[in-house]
C-alpha cells in the first residue's frame, strides 16, 4: 500500500523536480488535507513545482480524504472517480482535480 507521508516527502518532490514541464502544464496550487496523515501544498505554478509541508490560503483546489482512502488512490490512481463518487475523496475544484492523475501516477 502507498504511504502518504512518503508520497509527499519523497516521491512527489522528486517527480516535480524531474519533470519541470508538469508545473507549466498544470499551473495550479493544490492543498491536500489527509485526515490521519497531515496537510501538504503542491504548488505547480511558475517554472517548476514544489511540495510544501502545510496548507496555503490561495489553493485552486483542496483535496480532502482519510489516509486509508488516499493510500488506495496512491495504489490505483484510476480509482479517483470511484472514491469521489463514494464521498471518500472531496475536491473543491473538479476541473483542477482532473489533472491530479498526472501527478499521482
Structure description:
The protein is 43% helix and 27% strand. A 5-stranded mixed β-sheet has the order 3-2-1-4-5. It has a single domain, classed as Nonspecific Lipid-transfer Protein, Chain A (2-Layer Sandwich), CATH 3.30.1050.10. The protein contains 6 helices and 5 strands. A hairpin with a 5-residue loop joins strand 2 (38-44) and strand 3. It is globular and about 35 Å long. With 105 residues, it is α+β, with helices and mostly antiparallel strands.
Short description:
The protein has 105 residues and is of the alpha+beta class.
List strands and helices in order, with pairings.
Layout: H1 4-18, H2 21-26, E1 28-35, E2 38-44, E3 50-53, E4 61-66, H3 67-75, H4 80-85, E5 89-91, H5 94-97, H6 100-104
Parallel strand pairs: 1-4
Antiparallel strand pairs: 1-2, 2-3, 4-5
Number of domains: 1
Describe the largest sheet. 5 strands, mixed
Radius of gyration: 12 Å
Order of H and E elements: HHEEEEHHEHH
CATH class division: Alpha Beta
Looking at this protein, list some descriptive labels:
single chain; 105 residues; alpha+beta; Nonspecific Lipid-transfer Protein, Chain A; 5-stranded mixed sheet
